[in-house]
TrEMBL record:
Assigned GO CC terms: cytoplasm
Protein's name according to its UniProt entry: YfhL family 4Fe-4S dicluster ferredoxin
NCBIfam families hit by this protein: di_4Fe-4S_YfhL
UniProt organism field: Vreelandella azerica
PANTHER family found in the cross-reference section: PHOTOSYSTEM I IRON-SULFUR CENTER, PHOTOSYSTEM I IRON-SULFUR CENTER-RELATED
Gene3D superfamilies linked: 3.30.70.20
Keyword flag Iron: yes
InterPro entries: 4Fe4S_Fe-S-bd (IPR017896), 4Fe4S_Fe_S_CS (IPR017900), PSI_iron-sulfur_center (IPR050157), YfhL-like (IPR047927)
Keyword Metal-binding: yes
GO MF, one example: metal ion binding
């Protein structure tokens, strides 16, 4: 499952540099996560780094983007060419 950023985002800028897949970018009003690049840090870390640094806890799983661990690992290989 990809992650998403909710409107509770305060644009603090701490999540974007933590994403190893460059899936987080500034949106029109708040940061956004590209579900085609988000692997929930599978392949890089044990836990999503953006969730770890978010001071307002506004990065939940996106219920519309359900993926298994194996699917996230396949995406990791595709995104990183590893």
């Amino acid at each position: 499952m990809a992650l998403m950023i909710t409107d509770e985002c305060i644009n603090c800028d701490v999540c974007e540099p933590e994403c190893p897949n460059d899936a987080i970018s500034p949106g029109e009003e708040i940061y956004v996560i590209d579900p085609n690049l988000c692997t929930e840090c599978v392949g890089h870390y044990d836990e999503p780094q953006c969730q770890q640094v978010c001071p307002v806890d506004c990065i939940p799983l996106d219920p519309d983007k359900r993926e298994t661990h194996d699917e996230l690992m396949e995406k990791y290989h595709r995104v990183t060419d590893k």
